[in-house]
Design goal:
The chain has about 250 residues and is α/β, with parallel strands linked by helices. About 30% of the residues lie in helices and about 25% in strands. It has six helices and ten strands. It is elongated and about 70 Å long. The N and C termini lie far apart (about 85 Å).
Length: about 250
């Protein structure tokens, strides 16, 4: 009995000795994670934001949306926003330009405003649609209706860009309504015949009236789109930024 067991063990040892060594496991390549945060106004750019992460080999992308007032370049490799750079010594890269479009209800008879009229509306100096100068060729002012003024929450990047473009340095008029993002702005203005608001142009879904701002390029207010970071991006983050610049500058 013992002899038979010894023979079996010896055979197994010989068999193991003849097997080729198992290949050593190759550790999986580790992707460099690039963290990106963006404000709600740039939500339509989400496809480009994600596509660049897919086009660059060896990159893992972590993306999240944060409100403009909470955007902190220290919390991500790249922080995307509309408007001028935040205060501080952050690195800033240009991603292109966006038109801030003024919108009203589709049935509003006012199709254009001067910058002074728009500024007066938002500072509370002009409160009724009947106070607007008649359109060229019209013999009567718009009917009397209180203007329902819509803006965004304090600290929002679209609001800051709009107020900077209009050179509004003080407080807005007391009777203003706030929307959390352009989607809510479009809904609010589209549902109220007396409302006025503003959105980045690429949010326009044709459900509202685009009011032309006289004397400005394309009848809108222009603003930059920028990417912020704590320092100049390196490695995969640098490649990703280059891809994002190319895609958005081509829009």
């Amino acid at each position: 009995m013992w002899h038979r067991c010894l023979l079996i063990l010896a055979g197994m040892a010989l068999l193991c000795a003849c097997q080729p060594p198992l290949p050593s496991a190759t550790p999986p390549s580790t992707a460099q994670v690039v963290t990106v945060q963006y404000t709600p106004g740039l939500r339509p750019w989400l496809a480009e934001i994600q596509t660049c992460g897919q086009e660059i080999a060896g990159i893992g992308l972590a993306v999240r949306e944060v409100s403009g007032g909470r955007l902190d370049p220290a919390q991500a490799d790249l922080s995307l926003r509309i408007g001028a750079p935040l205060t501080g010594n952050n690195f800033a890269a240009d991603l292109g330009r966006v038109n801030i479009t003024v919108i009203a209800h589709a049935q509003n008879p006012v199709h254009s405003l001067t910058p002074d009229e728009l500024r007066a509306i938002y500072t509370g100096a002009l409160r009724d649609w009947s106070e607007i100068n008649p359109e060229e060729g019209s013999t009567s002012p718009p009917p009397a209706h209180p203007i329902q003024v819509w803006t965004y929450l304090p600290g929002d990047d679209i609001r800051e860009s709009f107020e900077t473009s209009l050179q509004i340095s003080g407080a807005l008029g007391k009777e203003t309504y706030t929307a959390p993002d352009p989607a809510a702005m479009l809904q609010a203005v589209g549902e109220n015949p007396d409302a006025i608001g503003f959105i980045p142009e690429f949010w326009d879904d044709q459900s509202t009236l685009r009011i032309q701002i006289t004397g400005t390029p394309d009848g809108s207010l222009q603003s930059p789109v920028i990417a912020l970071s704590r320092g100049e991006p390196e490695g995969k983050a640098h490649q990703y930024l280059g891809c994002l610049q190319q895609k958005n500058l081509d829009r």
